[in-house]
């Protein structure tokens, strides 16, 4: 479950286009400021596009790119005992991985076919009756996997951040996920959609039975995008201060996870000719069909953080942190190690043997869990 060497994305890793703005120093000197502007340059900083993965019911479907499910994405939580180690988590919707059984993960590799991680729906963690979110620890190899991990909690939108920066209706958003009509088939090729926040707190009942507030965004979606990461961002000029001043700078956060599309009922006219159908008269009699309003429903990012701090998951991180600390304490001090001893590694704690070390840690954690 421990991962090292995989790029960890922070909100500061994504840059924006820039444009010149004339400024004046306190002494009246004219100078040029290059301020952020426009959309984030995600094509140039492609690591963010490597955070999603695709889900299938089994390994056979994953290899064939058939019978596809939803989307998920990667988050990483650093261990308190050693920040160079972190636990990577696969995040998606409960209704995708558990209820519908799309619990097998496919992640792109730097070379060759994608890597497939088979999980049973019962292996995913979730908070029963709460937001439509599920998580499972996953071990990644930075040399093998063409993936990136969002830093938690730094990248996650918090309720304090919402209040302090007045995040709300009108703010720009985008999501990265699976467009089922073109998802790459043999490899994962995520698609992007853009929009704006419409409502910050909407009580829409989720498949879990939860009616805690969701965030509604004006952004078209469809089957396959369930479980996608949704980001909120601001650039220079996208908001104004109270006195009408131009606000400089940019920010980006994970707004949350897409869990569904807000439905609406469409009335079907009966016995109406094509010519009459163009008439603007109100529909007074007909059948109804459920359609989608163009509103995407998002579980807020702080609900993801709540899940990652579920006692079972927190205990796993604590246990692995203790094992790392114990192994580090048993090593001789740097000054006590001769150059000859440093050369070819002789201990599994040497960074050159991370794979072996991680295997030992995983085995130790598994043994401790069985003994509890």
Q: SSE order in H/E notation? A: EEEEEHEEHEEEEHEEEEEHEHHHH
Strand tally, please? 17
Proportion of residues in extended strands: 25-35%
- Main beta sheet: 9 strands, mixed
Query: In angstroms, what is the radius of gyration?
Result: 24 Å
Extract low-pLDDT stretches: 333-361, 363-372
Global mean pLDDT: 77
* Number of helical stretches of at least 4 residues: 8
Query: So what's the overall shape?
Result: globular
State the end-to-end distance. Answer: 19 Å
Q: Which percent range fits the helix content?
A: 10-25%
Coarse structural class: alpha+beta
Describe the protein's architecture and organization:
By secondary structure, the chain is α+β, with helices and mostly antiparallel strands. It contains eight helices and 17 strands. It has helices at 59-64, 94-99, 159-165, 274-277, 301-308, 311-329, 339-342, 354-371; strands spanning 2-3, 8-9, 16-24, 30-40, 52-56, 71-78, 86-92, 104-107, 115-117, 134-137, 149-152, 172-177, 191-202, 214-218, 229-234, 251-269, 286-300. Strands 1, 2, 5, 6, 7, 8, 9, 10 and 11 form a nine-stranded mixed sheet that branches. Strands 12-13-14-17-16-15 form a six-stranded antiparallel β-barrel. Strands 3-4 form a two-stranded antiparallel ribbon.
Task: Summarize this entry quickly.
The chain has helices spanning 59-64, 94-99, 159-165, 274-277, 301-308, 311-329, 339-342, 354-371; strands at residues 2-3, 8-9, 16-24, 30-40, 52-56, 71-78, 86-92, 104-107, 115-117, 134-137, 149-152, 172-177, 191-202, 214-218, 229-234, 251-269, 286-300.
């Amino acid at each position: 479950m421990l991962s090292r060497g995989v790029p960890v994305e922070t909100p500061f890793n994504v840059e924006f286009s820039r444009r010149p703005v004339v400024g004046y120093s306190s002494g009246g000197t004219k100078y040029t400021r290059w301020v952020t502007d426009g959309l984030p340059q995600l094509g140039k900083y492609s690591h963010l596009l490597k955070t999603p993965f695709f889900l299938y019911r089994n390994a056979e479907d994953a290899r064939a790119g058939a019978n596809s499910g939803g989307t998920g994405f990667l988050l990483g939580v650093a261990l308190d005992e050693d920040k160079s180690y972190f636990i990577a988590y696969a995040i998606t919707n409960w209704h995708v991985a558990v209820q519908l059984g799309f619990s097998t993960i496919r992640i792109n590799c730097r070379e060759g076919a994608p890597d497939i991680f088979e999980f049973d729906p019962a292996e995913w963690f979730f908070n029963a009756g709460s937001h439509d979110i599920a998580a499972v620890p996953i071990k990644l190899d930075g040399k093998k996997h063409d993936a990136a991990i969002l830093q938690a909690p730094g990248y996650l939108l918090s309720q304090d951040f919402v209040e302090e920066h007045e995040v709300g209706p009108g703010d720009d958003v985008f999501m990265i996920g699976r467009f089922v009509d073109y998802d790459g088939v043999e490899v994962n090729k995520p698609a992007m959609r853009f929009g704006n926040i419409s409502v910050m707190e909407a009580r829409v009942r989720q498949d879990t039975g939860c009616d805690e507030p969701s965030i509604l965004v004006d952004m078209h979606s469809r089957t396959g995008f369930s479980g996608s990461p949704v980001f909120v961002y601001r650039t220079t000029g996208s908001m104004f201060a109270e006195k009408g001043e131009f606000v400089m700078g940019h920010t980006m956060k994970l707004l949350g996870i897409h869990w569904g599309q807000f439905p609406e009922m469409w009335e079907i006219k009966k016995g109406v000719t094509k010519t009459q159908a163009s008439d603007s008269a109100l529909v007074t009699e007909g059948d109804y069909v459920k359609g989608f309003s163009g509103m995407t429903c998002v579980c807020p990012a702080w609900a993801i953080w709540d899940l990652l701090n579920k006692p079972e998951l927190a205990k796993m991180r604590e246990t692995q942190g203790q094992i790392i600390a114990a192994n580090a304490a048993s090593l001789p001090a740097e000054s006590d190690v001769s150059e000859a001893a440093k050369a070819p590694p002789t201990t599994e704690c040497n960074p050159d043997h991370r794979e072996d070390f991680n295997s030992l840690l995983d085995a130790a954690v598994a043994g401790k869990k069985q003994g509890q």
